[in-house]
Design goal:
about 180 residues, alpha+beta, SH3 type barrels, 5-stranded antiparallel sheet, flat
Length: about 180
């Protein structure tokens, strides 16, 4: 059995060497073919009468461009859809904003709610640490949000804006009191 395996391995080695020799045999060398060069087109000169050449200059108008991109009434394709928000009112005066309109609505933290005594109101803390008392109808947030409801859990803010398709969208944000710990 050992002898048969040795004979088999010899035959296998010999057949591999022969196949390599056959594969590497003499073949005609392959010459690369140069790409065909475009033939220059012949342009005939226009025949002009000699008396019309003196003192006349003909100006040819440039050809109009094949395609022009018009940016009017189109959005910037590289600006994300989420960031394209414009206020609804065209006469929005950014200099006449209250301190509550300096930050995004969700950046304010609700610290207290007062209901049951006169007009309901809430106390919010701005990201800079200042506290503000907010009542129904007041504006809050950069997007011109308006407080529409105050209840014992928190308050609701309605924001209206135009998106990238120029459609008026309404977003209602709910800001709640944080859960008390340890009770």
């Amino acid at each position: 059995m050992m002898k048969a395996q040795q004979n088999l391995s010899k035959w296998l080695a010999i057949s591999c060497v022969l196949s390599v020799l056959v594969a590497c045999g003499d073949e005609a060398p392959v010459t690369p073919v140069a790409p065909a060069k475009p033939q220059p087109q012949k342009v005939e000169a226009a025949k002009v009468a000699p008396e019309s050449v003196e003192g006349t200059v003909t100006v040819t108008e440039p050809l109009p461009p094949k395609y022009t991109f018009v940016t009017e009434n189109r959005r910037d394709p590289f600006q994300p859809f989420i960031l394209i928000k414009r206020p609804v009112g065209a006469d929005v005066d950014l200099s006449a904003q209250t301190p509550l309109q300096q930050y995004e609505t969700m950046q304010y933290k609700l610290s207290a709610v007062i209901v049951g005594y006169g007009q309901p109101m809430v106390m919010v803390i701005a990201p800079d640490g200042k506290s503000y008392v907010v009542r129904k109808g007041m504006k809050i947030g950069k997007n011109g949000g308006k407080v529409i409801q105050i209840n014992k859990e928190g308050f609701l803010v309605e924001e209206k804006y135009r998106d990238f398709t120029d459609i008026v969208r309404t977003n209602i944000l709910e800001i709640k009191l944080p859960k008390r710990e340890g009770v």
